[in-house]
Amino acid sequence: MSDKEIVNNENENQNSHLNVPKNGRREALKTLATIPVIGAMAYGVIKKKNQEYRNKRVGNIFAFETTPTVMDRQPDGQTIRLGIIGFGIRGSQLMQALGFATPQHIDHLKDLAKQDVQNTRYKDFLEQEDLNIVVNGVCDIFDVYAKEAATAGANKNREGSEGKFANLPVIYKNYKDLLAAKDIDAVIIATPDHWHGTMVIDAVNAGKHVYVEKPLTWTVPETYLVADAVKKSNVIFQLGHQGRQIEINHRAKEIIKKGLIGKVTLAEVSTNRNDPNGAWVYSIHPEANPSTIDWKQFEGNPVRIKEYLDYMTSVGATKYVGPDSRDKFSLERFFRWRCWWDYSTGLSGDLLTHEYDAMNHMLDLGIPASATSSGGVYFFKDGRTVPDVLQTTFEFPDRDMTMLYTATLASQYNRPRKIMATDATIELGSTLNVTIDPQSELYREKIQQGIIKAGEPFYRYASGKSIDALSSATEMYFAERGLLFSYVEGKRYNTTYLHLREWIECIRQKKQPSCGIKEAFEEAMAAHMGTRAYLEGRTMYWDADKQVITRG
Amino acid sequence: MTTKNIYTRGQLTWLVVLRVLIGWYFMYEGLTKIMTPNWTSYAYLRDSQGWFAPFFTMLTDNAWVMSTVNAINMYGLTIIGLCMILGCFVQFANIGAIGLLSLYYLSHPPMLDVHYLIRPEGSYMWVDKNLIMLGAIAVLMLFPTSKLIGLDRWIFRKCKK
């Protein structure tokens, strides 16, 4: 049609009533010309939907009923009266998780929020649920920490230095006096490793409920005493492996239990850190000196020290003892105690235990049949006796599997936990990824049909959101970076808070928390086997009948 | 607005094609969002950059605002696309489309030193596909076609009567 032939619209309109059939058809054509496009889209959309439906049925293999991992609060439950033993780095973190921070810390959070509107730590802290607890007593053998613990305990309204505070909790110089206090129901123990066992036993004997930081114990003999004491009592006991609250670990456990990854033969876990703080070279407080620190109490329980020295001597590991005399005051040893076997359990107790407990949670491992370790002080040659690079292998012949732990304190390379099995491998980092094995029998048909791409992540789970390989790339990308976290849950949860909350709620409801004495005993024995294997340079075995560590 | 056809056939054809193509793009974007269970613009908004980023991030703080923003995206895009394809109330659809495209551009401006978690599929400096589409819709607003080809032909004649 040429330009001339273009019909003037108005003329057309004028003529329309005169020549209805012809112009009517033309009118209708021009009015409805693009409608077939909608038909084309509808066809495409239906086709896509059908394809998605087919894929979804495969995705449903990994569909789970969501089980809440957070306990319900008992309405109008009793107020739990707490005592805090130890207010160092971890002790202060635990108190913050409970909703108690020093006014200085609140001021700091406020400053951060002022400097950066995106920083919501202050807001999050204020919004953190009130756990209906009071802090009635605190104890720390460093006076400055003890006073800070008391001001944090009095800061019920979470205010900065301008705020109004409740009465200060009682400051106890000795933890035994705190345990004797009648106005304390439960204690949180966050002291150096060499005090854990003794304090738990004393607390249990005093009838106090206990939350103790990991590891459970420093020596092997005390481990039995602690387990006996807790088992015979009615106290609610929780070991501080907050990883028990990580949602993706619960999902991994479900996946393994359902047989979706097949037979597990190897679990690989690790620790990677690369800064002095991560290697326990903590700062030394300027006000610390022999008059502000009760060194005598720091030294430890003589019975425990004897157990430790007896063991070290009997296996010819005295080179790991000291080198300073135990009664010699040392700021370094006080603040950086983790660097010496004299007070610490090294990487085994501090970090391997978290990994072990996580695997024990997901795979119900119990105590390994044997352990070997190797490593050394390879980077932080600052006089420490504990290694900064450590490899420990645990064998589980009953389960036909190995757990390998490898650690370095001089590289921060991020290695997710891996659970390798015949049909798939689970990787646990900030998200859970399942990669189907190319040789899988279980998924063979689906791999052949091209529905599952072997070797590529097939299923992802990030905090309440399941994402299979058929979801959009964007969703996967965000899930991987954990950005969906806060939205899906509506709130970003701190796992330490959840772990403490569970303990407190279990005290109220007389229930068993997730990391009780059974799990704690298993964690402690596994870690001791790893430690002894390192110290003695040979394989350690677990005699399940006699419940003792042997040398084969 | 005139109902007179002032275009050549070629002009009219390609203006209508452009309108339908943009409409298709909008409608399918909207439908995909509607069909994705629990679809949310949360991640996209959280990934905002540039001068207006605080505003877009702020939208994600409130659950009610988030659900409104999500609904506008899901149904807004679909309805705008449908209107463009069918040629009905196209001028309103154009205004809506320009509004949404401006917001997308402002939340994810293709600045030189900015990195997005959702990487765009092309390479852009200051000008991206959203901006180009915005320009195309502005052209379509000034060269309307729906009263010639589309339901507006019937709707507006009815109104006129």
List the secondary-structure elements of chain B in sequence, H or E.
HHHHHHH
Residue runs with pLDDT of under 50 for 5 or more positions of chain A: 1-20, 479-490
Summarize the biggest pleated sheet of chain A: 11 strands, mixed
The overall strand count of chain A is: 17
For CATH, the homologous superfamily of the largest domain in chain A is named as: Dihydrodipicolinate Reductase, domain 2
What class do helices, strands and sheet pairing of chain A give?
alpha/beta
The overall number of domains of chain B is: 1
Helix share bin of chain A: 40-55%
Radius of gyration of chain B: 18 Å
Number of strands of chain B: 0
CATH class of the largest domain in chain A: Alpha Beta
Question: In angstroms, what separates the terminal alpha carbons of chain A?
Answer: 98 Å
- Per CATH, which architecture of the largest domain in chain A? 2-Layer Sandwich
Shape of chain A: globular
Q: Give the count of structural domains of chain A.
A: 3
Q: Give me the Rg of chain A, rounded.
A: 31 Å
Q: Can you walk through the features of this model?
A:
The complex is a heterodimer of chains A (552) and B (161). By secondary structure, chain A is of the alpha/beta class. Chain A has three domains: 1-29, no CATH class; 80-191, Rossmann fold; 245-550, 2-Layer Sandwich (Dihydrodipicolinate Reductase, domain 2). Chain A has 20 helices and 17 strands. In chain A, strands 15-14-13-12-11-7-10-9-8-16-17 form an eleven-stranded mixed β-sheet, sandwiched between helices. A six-stranded parallel β-sheet of chain A has the order 3-2-1-4-5-6, with helices on both faces. In chain A, α9 runs parallel beside α10 (220-232) and α11 crosses α15 (346-363). The model of chain A is unreliable at 1-20 and 479-490 (pLDDT under 50). With 161 residues, chain B is mainly alpha-helical. Chain B has one domain (9-160). Chain B has helices spanning 9-35, 42-46, 53-59, 63-86, 90-107, 129-142, 152-160. The radius of gyration of chain B is 18 Å and the shape is globular. The mean pLDDT of chain B is 91. Chain A binds chain B through residues 1, 3, 5-10, 13, 27, 30-35, 37-38, 41, 44-45, 49, 117-118, 472, 474-475, 477-478, 481, 483-484, 487, 490, and chain B through 3-5, 7-9, 16, 20, 23-24, 27-28, 31, 35-36, 40, 42-44, 46-47, 54, 57, 60, 63, 82, 85-87, 117-118, 147-151, 153-154, 157.
